[in-house]
Design brief:
This protein is an all-alpha fold. The chain is 76% helix and 0% strand. The protein contains four helices and no strands. The radius of gyration is 24 Å and the shape is elongated. It starts with a helix and ends with a helix.
Length: 157
């Protein structure tokens, strides 16, 4: 029986750790959101103007929706990468055999590469849109196209 006690103890530590993580997530993330009716995402993706009959009425609304989708995607990606980094760290610290260490390192590398790809994609889209909008040389948020357009049109009138 002493041969199986080490494996049993490791299994029980992993099970206990999983239960603690789930309990922590419920207490600190899910319960306050439900109690305070808070949205876990950074904001509303579709603006109120687009929720009315006829949907989005202008390009401004579509630019706002695009910016909100990008912000929400980045928010979710950063949150998930933090969770996966924590999971890989936990695997790395609690591993006894070499297989778990290599698995943890693989998770670290894959999450880092994925996060770099997502943030680089955001940077490319943001830079491209700022260049195409041509904000008069200044770099401001590209989703403010309509405000700039209204200012330019009102200058002619």
């Amino acid at each position: 029986m002493p041969y199986f006690s080490a494996c049993y103890n490791i299994f029980m530590v992993h099970t206990l750790a999983l239960r603690i993580v789930v309990l922590f997530a419920i207490i600190f993330f899910i319960a306050p959101s439900l109690a305070l009716a808070a949205s876990p995402l950074p904001g509303q993706i579709v603006p109120e103007k687009c929720n009315q009959i006829g949907g989005c009425q202008s390009v401004c609304d579509l630019a706002t929706v695009a910016q909100n989708v990008l912000n929400t995607g980045i928010y979710i990606a950063v949150f998930l990468s933090a969770v996966l980094f924590a999971w890989a760290g936990w695997l790395y610290l609690t591993s006894v055999a070499g297989g778990e260490i290599s698995r943890a390192k693989e998770i670290f590398v894959n999450v880092a590469i994925g996060l770099i790809i997502i943030l680089a994609g955001w940077l490319v889209v943001d830079t491209l849109m700022r260049t195409l909008v041509g904000n008069g040389g200044s770099f401001g948020p590209w989703n403010k196209i309509c405000e700039l357009f209204v200012e330019q049109v009102s200058a002619f009138v």
